[in-house]
Amino acid sequence: MQKLEIAYTGDVHYNLSPAELIEHAIRKGEGRLASTGALVCETVPYTGRSPKDRYVVEEPTTQEDIDWGAVNVPFPPNLFDEAYKRVIAYLQNREVYVTDCYAGANPRYRMPVRFVTELAWHALFVKQLLLRPSARDLEQHVPEFTIINACNFRAFPEVDGTRSEAFVIINFARRLILIGGTRYAGEMKKSVFTVLNYLLPKRGILPMHCSANIGPKGDVALFFGLSGTGKTSLSADPSRKLIGDDEHGWADDGVFNFEGGCYAKCINLSRDNEPQIWDAIRYGSVLENVVLNLATRAPEYADDTLTENTRAAYPIEFIEGAVIPSHGPHPSTILFLTCDAFGVLPPISKLTKEQAMFHFLLGYTARVAGTEAGVKEPQPVFSACFGAPFLPLPPNEYAQMLGERIAKHKSQVWLVNTGWTGGPYGIGNRISIQYTRQMVNAAISGELDEGEFHKDPVFGLMVPKHIPDVPPKMLMPGDAWPDQRDYDRKAKEVEGMFASAAKAARIALPV
Predict the structure, then answer these.
(1) pTM value surpassing 0.90
(2) Element at 39 (helix H, strand E)
(3) How many Å apart are CA 116 and CA 29, to the nearest integer?
(4) What positions carry a catalytic annotation?
């Protein structure tokens, strides 16, 4: 194990155990224990990622590759060097925690990474989220990337060249990432994901923002989707084994998890709907921004006082029957998850290859009231490859790799609406997770392959006529609306949104 390469005068804690990190966090007032045993921490005012505060250093080795723009904002090398010096000076004489991990469950492709954090609970978070080296591995661990998280260090925009006090700056040439001004732990895991999204395509591996599980017959299913669409909930299926809940690679020998843990949204979490996630939240887990009952310390999962983006982080071993090591064969089924708050997309539909490429590049979902400040009405969100904020390369490069793999391995692709039915948000109802599970299971099992299909008249999607235990009128969304004319108007409106987004992104409409 390498020691810190920087001159440092404070206390450095190397690779502490989860129990030690929990003790440190409680001693320093960073969090409290819930009745479940999980460590509960707050990250207010930043309770989610800050995509507008993420930068990539513009330097010769990557200058021609990066898809520069609103997602990958260029940052001058000289300002990075100054920011690095200021961050290191800030950390002097403070306790810091060094945590060595791996990203990539397949040993052929794994990347050694190191985190230097000023908070003990941040060290616990990355230890539980990424892959944990054995004692022997630690002796040989040489980090290829180092992430320094000085979360309480605040930038001065006029000095540091940032937009605000918060920043995430990736320097591919120096193999360094600086994080400051925000305590939201998800910035760390997504920074590693961004790095992998740059490095792995050069090795012929497709990085994917998806969850994955495997059935008793060895059939793998992938679940693509943006935050809130159900990746974690739907892949945590007691009848199938979990490979991973968020980030995977697709290589010549199959798919593999980038991480060693799960990061589940837990707003309105219940044992009935998500038993595996419920049982995973125990000692060693981390809860972010979950309100505790003052008398019992029980988590109040329905309380969104701090944010709707409440989170639980836990090792994948906490999910019963999880696949370890976390990799599997090529997927037979791919599901694109979208939360359509307008209530016009079918709850499930089969896609042609052309439709699959269109919806992958479009990456549609909808943001509803309460998820972000100022959002009063449902807003369409289009995020290329269901993960635009994490893509350093042009989206077409990832789409081409996916299309080649779908064709080669004959994967069946489905579009699944986990949003609203019978009307838009505020009028209709959210599709129950029980119905969605039934539809997803029918698609994965092949039960729908020989069934009959309708063609959706607006979106041209092939919709199953019958799925066991799912109300037939739910399958064709217009039938579920009280007034067909209202549905027609809203469906045409959403179709227009799709066309406008496709035109702006230069995506060809499927025939």
Answers:
(1) yes
(2) strand 39-41
(3) 19
(4) 49, 190, 209, 227, 231-232, 246, 311
